[in-house]
Amino acid sequence: MATKAYAALLRGVNVSGHKKVPMAELRALLTGLGHGDVRTYLQTGNAVFTSTSDDEQALAAQLEQAVEERFGFGVDVLVRGHAYLRAVADACPFPAASLEGRQLHVTYFSEPVTASRVASLDPAAYLPEEFRFGDRALYLYTPDGLGRSRLAEALTRSAPADGVTATTRNWNTVVKLVELTRARPA
Question: Residue 163: which CATH number?
Fold first, then answer.
C-alpha cells in the first residue's frame, strides 16, 4: 500500500508555557501510532509523517486522542497532505516572494469558510493589513507582524464559535511544510 506525506498542525501548543508538548515526545507518539518518516519543525506543533491512510480527519482524530492520553489535555489537530499544502501556497493572493515571512500568514481551517464568517468587519478600517479567503484557508497580510496586528485580533474576536478548528502559521512555516511533505526519492 502506498504511503502519503502529511503535516500535522497542532493548535496552541508550547505557547507562553501552556500545553507543553516536547517535540521529541510528539515524534515518538506519531511513530508509536504506526506512522513513518516522522519529523517535527520548530517547537510550535508542526509534525510531518507518512501514512498509508487517505483519511486526514481520522488521522487528526487519532493524534488528538493520543495527545490527550499522553499529555492530559486536549489539542485541536489539522492534518493536511502535500498536494493541499502546495495548492494553498501556490494560490497565495499576496506577493509572498517580496514579503518577509513574519508579514504573511495562513490560517488553516478544518472545513470551508466564507467571508460571511467575518461579515461584521470593515476591511478598510484595518488597512494596510489585509486578508483573503482560500480553500479552507485565510491569507493574512500584516506589514508589522502578527503580534502587532489589529486585524488578526479582530478576526479572532469575530470568529463564531461554530466548532471550526483554525490554526495559523507564518509564511516561512507554510513554505517549509510544503517542502517537508514533498515526496522524496526512495
Answer: 3.30.70
pLDDT tens, position by position, 35-81: 999 999 988 889 999 999 999 999 999 999 999 999 999 999 999 99
Residue that terminates a domain, selected from 35, 56, 84: 84
Cα-to-chain-centroid distance, residue 33: 21
75 and 138 together in one domain = no
Beta carbons within 10 angstroms of residue 112's beta carbon: 11
Amino acid of residue 143: P
> Do 76 and 21 lie in a common domain?
yes
**What whole-number distance in Å separates Cα of residue 135 and Cα of residue 37?**
27
DSSP-assigned letters across all residues of 80-145: EEHHHHHHHHHT-SS-GGGS-GGGEEEEEESS---GGGGTT--GGGGTT-EEEEETTEEEEE-TT-
Backbone angles phi, psi at 20, to 5 degrees: -75, 125
Question: Quick check: 183 and 82 in contact, CB under 8 A?
Answer: yes
Which 3 state secondary structure label does DSSP give 39?
A: strand
> What is the pTM for the complete model shown?
0.93
Which of 56, 84, 112 marks a domain boundary?
84
